[in-house]
């Protein structure tokens, strides 16, 4: 395996951890809010994704990916660089969904820590957890309706 690819893979794994830690451990900290407003982490990871993807595409793999079968995908991801492409894809998309869950919680007051942890380890499970948590919260603990500050005179 190419050592540079392994180092990029390891670096990508480490790169996302501070963002997850901020959202999970310090969700209400002003620094967390400021950091999570930025799209810079996604730009960095997308750049890495493109770099790895371009280096892993061959005419054969491009043809196989254009109309994939499960066997074609398995052969493609058997190559370390292609596996790194797939993993960085997961990292980018899971962090993006985690960021969405985080902002949903910040804007609605819905508890998100458990969903973020699920999203970190199994993205779609975290997304489903958040959707279910939000639905339960809306049904059993709806947001209070603001009382009018003045009564109409009559």
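Sequence proposed for the structure above (154 residues):
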């Amino acid at each position: 395996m190419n050592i540079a690819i392994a180092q990029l893979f390891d670096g990508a794994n480490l790169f996302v951890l501070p963002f997850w830690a901020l959202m999970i451990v310090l969700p209400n900290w002003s620094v967390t809010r400021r950091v999570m407003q930025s799209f810079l982490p996604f730009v960095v990871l997308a750049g890495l994704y493109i770099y790895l993807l371009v280096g892993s595409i061959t005419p054969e793999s491009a043809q196989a990916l254009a109309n994939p079968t499960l066997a074609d995908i398995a052969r493609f991801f058997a190559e370390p660089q292609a596996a790194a492409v797939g993993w960085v894809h997961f990292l980018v998309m899971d962090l993006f969904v985690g960021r969405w869950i985080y902002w949903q919680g910040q804007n609605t007051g819905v508890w998100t820590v458990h969903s973020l942890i699920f999203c970190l380890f199994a993205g779609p499970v975290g997304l489903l957890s958040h959707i279910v948590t939000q639905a339960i919260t809306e049904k059993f603990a709806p947001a209070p309706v603001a009382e009018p500050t003045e009564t109409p005179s009559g």
